[in-house]
Target: DNA-binding LytR/AlgR family response regulator
Amino acid sequence: MLRVLAVDDEVPALEEMAYLLQRDPRVGDVATAGDATSAMRLVSDLVAAGDHLDALFLDIHMPGPSGIDLARFTSALAHPPEVVFVTAHEDFAVTAFELKALDYLLKPLREERLADTLGRLARVRGHRPEENRVAVELAGRVRFIPRTDVFYAEAQGDYVRLRTAEGSYLIRSTLGALEREWDGAGFVRIHRSVLVAARHVCELHFDGSRARVKVGEELLPVSRRQTREVRDQFIRRISGDPGVS
Model:
């Protein structure tokens, strides 16, 4: 699991950033600091204890040393963490990438954009989730459901609805971001607004040029554009093609 430090001098922004980081199942520990000086002290204490961080999520404009100063400080470490800048200003993008920042995110922070960054971070740091779980919010609680329980995902505006045997859950994401994050996990795009889990498809129905897939007790339409690709993918799965995940 990833260990990260979020740094921002504005309390609401820091709390929002920490909350979004904690919602991602790839993230384990989230430490916070309200300024760069406190962050430098925390990082130094971790290094002295033989511990480490995977990444810093930094604001740039802060009282005292800036986020740029903090990034330069950590770059001198024997095992520096990755750096992700989270700022309302576009002016420092060139400087950020000169410092080899992993990413440069603009405020307000969007969860789907953060998910893309965390995916890159996990790959760079060689982490894999202990469990492939999805965080869903229910009446003020965050529940983690196994990704293998998801029958299909359907786009609904700025959200995606996940359908399982137990019910459905809304998560704040886009279907495109989810498709990239779940690449290789056995989900097939059957429509511009639907990703279906191949493991839960029990039947394919064809009526002329139209197709539908049966998932649980539901029949989901396949778009005309996707029909041939969906048919070919499932035929390869049935035939045991090793190139199909």
User: Anything to note?
Assistant: The mean pLDDT is 87. The helical segments are 11-23, 36-48, 67-75, 93-98, 111-125, 175-181, 224-238.
